Amino acid sequence: MARRLPSQPPVLPGFSTIHVLGSGGFADVFLYEQNMPRRQVAVKVMLSEVVNDQVRQMFQAEANLMAQLSSHPSILTVYQASVSSDGRPYLVMELCSSSLSERYRRERIPVPEVLRIAVKIGSAIETAHRAGVLHRDIKPSNILLTAYGHPVLSDFGIASTLSEADSHESVGLSIPWSAPEVLMDETPGSIASEVWSFAATVYSLLAGRSPFEVPGESNKSADLISRINRARPQPIGRSDVPPSLERVLAQAMSRKRENRPASVLELVRELQSIETELGMPQTPIEVAMDDWALATISDLEDRTRIRGIGGAVPTSRGRRRRRSASVTYAPVGTLMRQTAGGQNSRQRGQSSGTSPIKRGRGMRALAWGLIVSAVLVIALGATATFVLIRANSDRIPLVTNIVATEGSGSIKFSWADPGL
Known about the structure:
The protein has helices at about 55-70, 100-105, 110-130, 180-185, 190-205, 220-230, 245-250, 265-275, 300-305, 355-390; strands spanning about 15-25, 25-35, 40-45, 80-85, 90-95, 100, 135, 145, 150-155, 160, 405, 410-415.
């Protein structure tokens, strides 16, 4: 099927057209130069022939979603959105150098780099989920690289809120990275299907192909769908990929949703542990943390459930993956989780061998010592203040009411203390 020619770029006030960057099913992307502030930007423009009320609503939803999420360092920044003079909606976005869609097929990306990209993009997906948003099109071509080489997640064009995800609606599918339940129309999307797509994307960056693409065989849509439903991806085929990484990705692409990690964050934690296994520094997880960051261990799981726009909390699955108590995770910008032993994974700085009773007695003794010391300091301070005040007084003490008492051969004089 022949590729269509790009549409004519619209005339946008304050912007100058340079050239076309790419074309998609519903929009073209052009390189513009913004006049003030002067910078080059990517402008995504809807095709005039597909613009209708539904498409306008979808485009507006994408603009709003990306504006809400684009403060995240691994989500593409949107500068503004509007409608051109010829009626086509457009988005003005950060200009990125390239996507991973061509690179992963052209060259072997090092395992450390793939893990770093995966943790950062996984953080972006987790952030979207916490905002009640499903991306629904996670794949290598939607991971762009900024001018500084930082990966960012783009194209929320078919995204939906978690509260709307139960309604089955027709959406565009990227078959090689779509979960089996999505391909079978069992669901239009869920957190579990996003876990699957994310794992399939990481697999692709390592293998140089999608998980169910077989070199030398037919890889048409029907063939891919059949293999995805069997849920048996080919081995990655790289000696530098540890078996633990293959197992983690295969588990996340399980046909049964209950066998996958419960969230993208859980999968990212597994990738962090593989970084540690390989002797690499852990890539920090970039997930926004506010009041719930101070949550106690008892309510941590409840506070980190994904909430939809309507406020409903999805029910948790019965099966929970166990985690080794010996694995620790990067402290910067990350959420602490309980270990299998029931303690915080960083132990909050306490030794497991310390007796709670001894700690309590020691604290009480220390408290009483501090109280006694405080009373003594106050008393000494009051005495010193009184003496200084009396010493600095201008009044000269006078002796009055002198009483003389005659004794045997002597006279005794006595008087009241004048205040010396």
